[in-house]
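2024-03-11 09:14:02 DEBUG pipeline.ingest accepted 1 chain
2024-03-11 09:14:02 DEBUG pipeline.ingest length=407
2024-03-11 09:14:03 DEBUG pipeline.predict start
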Amino acid sequence: MTETEKLIIEAVENRKEDFVEFFQSLIQIPSFTGQEKEVADALVEGMKARGFQDIEIVERIPGHPNVLAHIKGNEEGPTFTFNGHLDILPPQNNNQWKSPPFSGHIEDGKIYGRGTVDMKAGTFSSFFAGLIIKDLDIPLKGNVLFTGVCDEEICGENGMLYLIKNGYVKKKHEDDFGLNCEPTNLEEINMATKGVLRADIKVQGKGAFGARPYLGINAIDKTHKLINEIIQLNEKINKDESLRHPLLEPASVLVTLIKGGEASNLVPDSCTITVTRRMLPCENKEGCLKDYSDIIERLNSEDPEFKAEIHEWDNFRPPVELPLNLPLVDALRKAQMLVTGKELLLTGSEGGTDASLVVYYTGIPMPVYGPGDYKLLGTVNEHVTVEDFINAIKIYALTIYYSLGNS
């Protein structure tokens, strides 16, 4: 172990109690999507109180904050961008939790609370790693940017998309790189991510009094045909050998929402389904939307009364894959082995993250790696271990040093 590695690990250990208490205080703030202001303010205030002054809140709309913290290196070089989100899912089933979902309760080495895994442990451990690098005044050839964004759970315009569109996150140096801190058990690094494409398909019928259904066109009945076609499409793409990826499960398409009818004594004049497509990197949005339009055309040719239109959602998350030989992978592998003694596993992510937006729109390579068991995401008694949280701080700080350190 080098002297700098030893200094980083010891510095985290010396501040372990403070970091855990700070983390608990942030867990205790419910930060549902659209309600992130309090936790953003607490993060900024706590970071500044601990000596990290170059930190700011950036908003597209007041009350929808993104927190940005900056470390400027001693020499010119690439920027290492960390990404996490501040918003969390509702707790659900409050009476089934071992302790209140916003207590930050610690028991048997586990910190309980909604949002611990998704993803306050990852987001805040990256910021705390910044505190360590600043405190130790480690010389860096390049800069570090930490981002804690809003609206991630709904793929909103106020979070990472706003930062990208307004140049807060952009590629300035050919070697810029990043890391998204979503949970991967501190064992896996996601080098490929499925895309998420959502669309509403509205089926048009004709309203009539329910006692005289022959005067109308039942939109729900017509939608039944469409749903069957979507189910068959899912089976088709699941079995398509050309739609395979070594790090990802097969592509899928699901009907996830249905809305139709106004009253029990009326023939429904419209019915809308939401279709969610999980795409592989070899697919594109245009091809997926064409699958739907082809189905609509075929159904219309078989039944002239079948009419439907597609309305794509705005929050498209593109599929991405990254080169497996990124220098960041070697840095993380070295840091993880030093801290946990475990080998780094190269995998893919089934769920979407803001990393996809960064890669797609800026060209900055951003794999996914963070603390927490992703199988606990959104569950009752969501928790992260104290050990994982502290280890994440060490690993992130070491990875900054390995990637940008010039000493």
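2024-03-11 09:14:41 DEBUG pipeline.report The longest strand covers residues 75-85.
2024-03-11 09:14:41 DEBUG pipeline.predict end
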